[in-house]
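User: Show me a protein chain along with its predicted structure.
Assistant: Here is one chain, sequence first, then structure tokens.
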Amino acid sequence: MTTFVAAETADVTLGEISTFITKGATPTTYGFAWESTGVPFLRSECVSERGLDMRQSMFISPAAHQALRRSQVTDGDILMTITGYVGRVIRLAGVGEANINQHIARVRIKDTRFDPGFIYHYLSQPSMREYYESIITGQAYPQISLAQVRNTKIPAVPLEEQQAIAAALDDANHEIDLIRQRLTKAQCVKQGLMQQLLTGRTRLPVKEGAA
């Protein structure tokens, strides 16, 4: 697994290179009901180990989305879980506008010296997950604060190097996704074959004299 090392560079904090890092809220607390369609509302379960899981999302009305402006998110934003399984990270793509609950922190990179893709991969590495798990508070309900997220140290790697690293890791993730898709397809084929063979719906030819 990739570990980033910044040689002879000064660290900055995540808060210094981002717009105000914030979190969401529960719409029903403000009198808004859940909707069957509308603006996607992302819960911590949506930020999974394998990326964004929209199956765990809900919907809120455009009015609720507008009222909860502080927690609006859009493509390119980095989301991090700050309660429960802390430190899970995704970067939004192909979702458009959405909103988040209070268990997710929104990170939006504003400093043009830093590539958002690089920051996403940096925060995704296992050592960062271990770091966040080492500073959690609460036993029954583990959590980290927004201040701790803002104070996360980021190496000031030259921008061109950041972009090259992000591109290489994006390619690796794409290859992993393709392998997972092929594995899922192969598993489905196997399940169908088992159903046919083990129920006797399909019989295999057996050579005469075979014992």
